[in-house]
Design goal:
This protein is α/β, with parallel strands linked by helices and 305 residues long. The protein contains 13 helices and eight strands. The structure holds acetoacetyl-coenzyme A (CAA) and nicotinamide-adenine-dinucleotide (NAD).
Amino acid sequence: QRHLSTSPASNGPKIEKLTVFGAGLMGAGIAQVGAQSGLKVTLSDVTDKALENGLNIISKSLSRVAKKKSPDDIEGFTKKIMDNIEITTDAGKAVENTDLVIEAIIESIKVKRDLFGFLDSKAKSECIFATNTSSLSVKEIAESCGKERQERFAGLHFFNPVPAMKLVEIIRTPQTSTSTYESLKEVTLRMGKAPVTCNDTPGFIVNRLLVPYLLESIRMVERGDATPEDIDTAMELGAGYPMGPFKLLDFVGLDTTSYIAQGWREKAASGQISKELVEPIELLEKLVKEGKLGRKSGQGFYEYE
Ligand code: CAA
Ligand code: NAD
């Protein structure tokens, strides 16, 4: 039984304009649900090719949504939402006048801190900054910004595929103000998502439980205990999971999974997570080195068309 509050909270500033950094799997999905909920969205990435990839992800997903919501006018439905999305590779321009930044770029603390440090001087002072990090410390990312922005900084963790997954974790740091938290909760509800609140600990709620399970499934294969296919079948039919761990690893991205484990190894040194859970896994690193990143690269544990 779930006890989710669905009443919109409204004590923080209302968000009308959203800027998303990173046009990959997650950024594209976040931009899409933002646009679907009526926000004006700017999507930014480092190259035109990455932006094109993001727009492709969005239009494919929107045609799925349109088939259900507007079967008689799929094109019109899709166009109306796409018209709410602007794209740019100019990070400074992307945050002009925006109310909320959601960052969904590569899972690297350094790259995320560099981006937010730059944006802090470009965005208006009331603008809220949020990171979609899977595993890094939100506080450490926020510290790339000035003191006032740190009060307007939180984690906003969406799940893949964003248009289909209802959950969003809102992560408060000790500096996050109540008004920032309330604004984020309100906009998440407007996006049709179910927010939960959690502390800034490694992996928050879902990934703290899910990632060790995914890593252990790779170790099972390395030990020769069972094949990826049999493990997937077992977890789907024996535990009721919608996807077995290898389908899910390919879906999440093996590079992203490897970055998470790598980041946590540093946390293990200070006792924030147990060391055995995040020991390096040769098979995972080998696949990443070979560019087999999962669905997004056409091959991971499985091959894709
Ligand atoms: N865009 C729009 N809608 C989509 C979609 C997309 N990309 N993918 C799925 N959907 C919708 C479908 O249209 C369908 O909607 P209706 O029920 O309204 O018809 C619904 O989602 C279910 O999809 P399907 O019937 O096509 O397929 P399915 O039942 O096999 O579900 C799935 C697909 C939702 C992806 C399901 O397999 C699933 O839940 N998988 C597990 C996903 C998961 O665990 N994600 C979390 C990953 S971890 C993470 O994200 C955190 C991190 O930091 C790494
Ligand atoms: P992805 O590899 O699909 O996309 C990352 C995008 O970020 C790429 O388009 C890349 O060009 C862009 N990028 C890199 N540096 C940039 C910069 N400085 N400025 C702007 N864009 C930049 O990755 P993803 O799976 O979308 O993951 C993005 C973030 O979301 C990561 O922090 C990840 O941990 C988190 N996340 C991932 C999942 C998942 O299932 N994949 C789920 C939840 C959260």
